[in-house]
């Protein structure tokens, strides 16, 4: 919204700074961080007085016992982050840009879907929240609406994707109509992977900061014709503004992790995890770097993959590969300290994000 100040730069030159994506990204990160720091303590107090706390029902009795002390911790903290990131993004994004508005729609839409699920869990409505089918249907509908908007807005390269280690000007994979199911799959997959990672204090939030930072850089480069040409990757007009959305997300996440680090004073719930994963997946696809999402979001892949392997192994062979899934619970039952698990997975997440960025010079 404040982007319009750049239009006044002819009258007052210093206002040109609002035409800078990096300047607005820095402000968006700062404002989202401040909003989170200011609102979360009040939110925690309200949730405690309303007795809206985490439902500690776990598949494993051992995990439930390990986490028993967290039973009175307020949840739905993702709502505050959702508000902070949205307000900050709207302030500093160019709201005339369809790409960023669709990104905000994914973020808000998935957040509201998670909020409904969290609220139903609290009220013990339905089958302890939305069923898996209901949640999946909601995710598909939201991503499908975005796909329709993208098909109307997109240019000649919309359905083309960048393959790692190959030069864009020499080879680009055109998925045609199949791009849209792939687009939906990436957003839903990333959203659910972050959701599965959200099981230890600070784990999902910290890993999401590293993934968001990597895609903030990629969105900025892809949205700059000169830099995209230098790295020989696709130029996507308008995608640079997604750098600001990712920066706002980093700020909001930093403010949230401030209170979510062990011992957590607040949990994000599905409200936060679904929204975070959805917008990271969206940015990955718009920046044409969806294929390297399993690298940049490697920790999320490990967590989601462990659940999938556990299900397949038990269903077909009646055996469990892990003591408990997702993988962070397996580590807990293997005797690892929660802080050690979180910090070490943070380090792995940071390294994988840098590796993902390192693919730029390989094109």
- Beta-sheet strand percentage? under 5%
Q: Which regions contain 5 or more consecutive residues with pLDDT less than 50?
A: none
**Terminal-residue CA separation:** 36 Å
Total beta-strand segments: 2
Order of helices and strands: HHHHHEEHHHHHHHHH
Rg calculated over all Cα atoms: 20 Å
Helical run tally: 14
Helical amount among residues, as a percent range? 55-70%
Structural class: mainly alpha
Query: Numbering strands along the chain, what is their spatial order in the largest sheet?
Result: 1-2
Largest sheet geometry: 2 strands, antiparallel
Cα shape: globular
Overall average residue pLDDT: 89
Fold and architecture overview:
64% of the residues lie in helices and 1% in strands. By secondary structure, the protein is mostly helical. The longest helix is centred in the first third of the chain and has 29 residues.
From the structure above, extract its key features.
363 residues; single chain; two-stranded antiparallel ribbon; 2 strands; mainly alpha; 14 helices
Draw up the topology in text:
Blueprint: H1 21-49, H2 61-66, H3 78-92, H4 98-123, H5 132-153, E1 160-161, E2 173-174, H6 179-197, H7 203-222, H8 225-231, H9 242-260, H10 269-286, H11 293-296, H12 298-317, H13 327-333, H14 338-358
Antiparallel strand pairs: 1-2
